[in-house]
TrEMBL record:
Protein name in UniProt: Cytochrome P450
UniProt cross-references to Pfam families, sorted A to Z: p450
Highest taxon listed in the record's lineage: Eukaryota
Organism field: Morus notabilis
Stored InterPro entries: Cyt_P450, Cyt_P450_sf
UniProt similarity note: Belongs to the cytochrome P450 family.
The UniProt record lists the keyword Zinc: no
Gene3D superfamilies: Cytochrome P450
Keywords: Iron, Metal-binding
Positions of region (Disordered): 73-102
One BP annotation, GO: sterol metabolic process
């Protein structure tokens, strides 16, 4: 084999390529689709009405990061599209890979 691939691809070449082509949008999109934190419990601080149900103050509610991050407010929410961050700004609390808030 001749050319740049002669002798196989070296890890240092892969790392150099990744660093040279690094893009924060790609990392944000990867964390949006597969967040490192899947969910957490939150405590209702007041009575909350949601879709006809009442969640009393003090109850624990399990909130999932992944369902927030694939909200229909994202265009094509289940597609991997790093360019979405360059097309328009992300609304607050729409991409929460590590949870957010108190």
């Amino acid at each position: 084999m001749k050319g740049p691939m002669a002798g196989g691809v070296k890890m240092k070449d892969i790392l150099a390529f990744m660093i040279e082509n690094a893009d924060l949008s790609t990392a944000l999109e990867a964390r949006r689709l597969i967040p490192p934190l899947q969910g957490t419990f939150r405590e209702a601080t007041t009575d909350i009405s949601y879709e006809g149900y009442t969640i009393p103050k003090g109850w624990k509610v399990y909130w999932t990061v992944s369902t927030t991050n694939i909200n229909a407010d994202f265009p094509a929410p289940e597609e991997f599209d790093p360019t979405r961050y360059k097309k328009s700004p992300t609304p607050p609390y729409m991409n929460i890979p590590f949870e957010g808030g108190p």
